Amino acid sequence: MSIVIRGATVLAMGGPNGSTPFLGDVHVEGDRIKAIGADLPLPEGATVIDGSGKLVMPGLINAHLHSGEALFKSRYDNLPLELWMLYAYPILGAKALSERMIYLRSMVVAIESLKTGVTCLTDDIFEAPRQSLAQLGAAVSAYDDAGIRATVSGHVMDRDFLDSIPFSREHVSAELQAEVAKLTPPTTEEYLAFAKEAYAQFHGRSGRIRFMLAPSAPQRCTPELMQAVNALALEWQVPFHTHIVETKVQGVTGPAMYGKSLMRYMADLGLMHPGTTIAHSIWVSPDDIALMGEAGVSVVHNTISNQKLGAGVAPVRQLLSAGVNVALGSDGISTNDTPRMFDVMHACGLIHKVTTPDYSQWLSSAEVLHACTLAGARSALIGHETGSLEAGKKADLLVINLDTVCFTPRHDILNHLVYSENGSSIEKVMVNGEIVVDNGRLTKIDEKALLAELRSLMPAFNDYHSGVEAANRAFAPAFDAIHRRCNQVDLGIHRLVGTSDMWPA
């Protein structure tokens, strides 16, 4: 099937034009872009889309999210990460969700993502108490049915959770420690078996679904697990996706537990390389940044989530200058409350203007858009397939109406995209050469029926989860004390989250 978008403003974000818009045509053949240029020949039988007054650009890429939090959208506020996790990622009392609930939960993410221009996402999926293949399959089926491109994982931890939090043995009661000790995390062998079966079942489905390896964080996983899954990631050429130094507590964790930063710890284990994608990277030192640049890692900057949790602001300019590939992510649908990447771009464009008075170091709209397109694709190791509009790449693109209020009066289109647009000007979303959103309507699923079904199930879920929250509230005083204690430690790193004298000793 041929589709030709004729006479549009094209923002390729790659190729000879880069981030400079130009007038031209885009020819899609099957699932790929066949040609881009002015006055392209029209193949016989091709569907023609009038591009006058339209912008054609790559679909946005959400390089880090947790769909499991979609059931907690707008449930929590004013909690730092370590206390918020008690309720969104409970230590005690959680039971396995049904496959149907996971399917509907994933659909909430897919629907909002596609309607607001996200054509590709990386979903680090955690299931309590541990993930089954059937549960992962439910999420994959939702993404497959909706038509989005997705890289999915089985998020894994294999250490006692309390051993991943500094000073927890001093602050958590012996009774609660004993309850946590009863939990049995998966062994390295169990997770490897799971990952191999998941890769065999899901990787490559529909040409849009990929599987990745996702050890939660270096302090939450044993070296044996991380090194074993890293070997698989390198063999399969999929991301080794993890979280490092999101909060001040985690900044303290490396020195407290290993006598070195968590970045240095990862490097010493041989886990820093171009296939490594690190979510957050806030509490990093200049030495850490140099290590990351030398290794060629990717970092996913989760601007809004980090602000909502009071975690700090990642040093994006320094990371870019060191040669780190910086992508953008929404992070979880509870610490951001939406997977909308236009919102993330807007926040990213703004927040770094207050990190230094040297305005020559502020991020440009072109850099923000690059982070949300081609850099995001590179973080998922699919930059050769998507993230920019170039002949031979997958046809993942947006058709945006330039005659809306968001682009009126029209000045710099890149600035409009970062600071004025919110997704409401999108007319068509194409993934893998297929139009999956047309004038606000998803073409492959019944959005209204799916959302109604999930709403009907939420009262029972909320009753259950309220009990889980009550059980885990017993940890709150100890975690509050740990949060306060760690935030008094001077790491010599300032990340716009207050000062070491925030609380009295």
From TrEMBL:
Can the keyword DNA repair be found in this entry's annotation? no
**Keywords on this record?**
Hydrolase
Q: Is Transferase there in the keyword field? A: no
Q: What is its EC number?
A: 3.5.4.28, 3.5.4.31
Write down the InterPro entries for this protein, in alphabetical order.
Amidohydro-rel, Metal-dep_hydrolase_composite, Metal_Hydrolase, MTA/SAH_deaminase
Q: Which GO terms describe its molecular function?
A: 5'-methylthioadenosine deaminase activity; S-adenosylhomocysteine deaminase activity
Q: Name one Pfam family in it.
A: Amidohydro_1
Residues annotated as domain Amidohydrolase-related:
55-436
| Family, similarity comment | Belongs to the metallo-dependent hydrolases superfamily. ATZ/TRZ family.
Q: What name is this protein filed under? A: 5-methylthioadenosine/S-adenosylhomocysteine deaminase
Q: Which organism is it from?
A: Ancylobacter polymorphus
